Queue: 2 jobs
Job 1
Amino acid sequence: MSREFDNPARPQLLEADGIRIEFGGRQILASIYMRVQTGQIVGLLGRNGSGKSVLLQTIFGARAVADASVRVNGRRVVPAFRAPGLLNYLPQEPLLPPSLSLAKAARMLGVDIELATARFPELRPQFDRRLNELSGGSARLVQALLLLHANTAFSLFDEPFSGVMPVHVETLAEEMQRMKSRKGLLITDHRYAEVLPICDVVYLLHQGRLLQLEGDVREQLRDYGYLAS
Ligand SMILES: Nc1ncnc2c1ncn2[C@@H]1O[C@H](COP(=O)(O)OP(=O)(O)OP(=O)(O)O)[C@@H](O)[C@H]1O
């Protein structure tokens, strides 16, 4: 199958709408329209349980939702993960088999591990170690870096900074900014202070609706009860 999506020279637009989800009569997602362009970092914020993970799973195609429309350049791609070179997804839980070495995991994803970890010299002596031999934060960092550097048009990251120490969060955020010249990134993470400065677009998921925040984003986050007032 051809990999028509992962050409960085060709702009791509990922759109999702029509996603309605309820659990036990409680509506989680009601009215969603979301777009991510290559060259952009899009931040998705929301209170615990607001449905951010469910939304990412649905866009990726891991969760089947009737009427969900996920499109690239206007063409439906459901499930999106089947489209070669289109997108990858870091879930909240570990993605890669824990018994894989870093070097093997990188090879599996077609990533040059030297390049992907160039700004994290501490990881160099660990290339031959298995993921389950790394600390939790290092394993999270490695998985985020490998997906970030993998050759896809989009990456969806669910809490990529979770457990990662502050100095590496800063460098990872810089890497994300650098890599957006090659892809579009959709990031949800409660480390809002690190997320907001790198985002081109910020969405807030609030009571099932997706709101695009503009202007004084922090004030709106306070108004909607995401930040303390
Ligand atoms: N399989 C399921 N069955 C029932 N309820 C579910 C299921 N999956 C998710 N939920 C509910 O859907 C809601 C949204 O969950 P989700 O994990 O998407 O929240 P989130 O915004 O990612 O939260 P957090 O910030 O805590 O990670 C939660 O109330 C959760 O309990």
Job 2
Amino acid sequence: MTPGALTVRADAVVLDIEGTTGSARHVHDVLFPYARARLGPWFAARRGTREHAELLEAVREFAGDPALDEAAAVAALTAWSDADVKAPPLKAVQARIWAAGYADATLTGHVYPDVPGALERWRRAGIARYVYSSGAEPAQRAWFRHSGRGDLTVLLDGYFDLASAGGKKEPDSYRAITAAIGVPAKRTVFLSDVTAELDAAAAAGWHTVGVARAPERPPTGTAHPWITTLDATALTGPHHHEAGTA
Ligand SMILES: CSCCC(=O)C(=O)COP(=O)(O)O
Ligand SMILES: [Mg+2]
């Protein structure tokens, strides 16, 4: 444990993916382009299926244009991908496209080296471990199952996404997660690299810890403590087993 580590009393930890447990560069330089290049073929291969009709309808709804045809829907999804719009239909299609890449080992989930050890420490301390990402739940599971550091899903208790919890900058999303996991807000800690997400979690009564991964640096003037490695976060849970914190 890093000397002077930040100590938080928590029974549950909720982890962001991009920029916190995994590399934002990997998401933007590998995952997004992989799906973007396959959006058109993905829709074309599913013409006439229920899956095609449902996704087209979801794109129309999010775009606010009930007349969108397949080509226009693919154009909208492409634009959302380029602008990193956290659009649920985009996240749903990306997850399905990425699944093939994980299955044939073209894709590997990027996980920082301190993540498996932190998850294991928190597991031993009796702290429940959840993921909350804008990426759809199947994409989150695939990322951790096919991580470059082995199958980490065995160390995770659940996953929340835009569909199950809502947007990450909305306090109500954190309240929804509190209700779902049955852990009081004041015993839950959220780790993220995005100040607006941390602000929303804090507004819902959660503890918050900002994570700045090199070469990013902790921002100044936020209401949150910041760390640069999970090794600097000592969570004391119900079992108080975490090294250096009992
Ligand atoms: C493995 S989930 C893919 C990441 C993603 O699609 C995304 O939008 C990242 O969102 P996050 O909330 O983890 O920053
Ligand atoms: Mg993030």
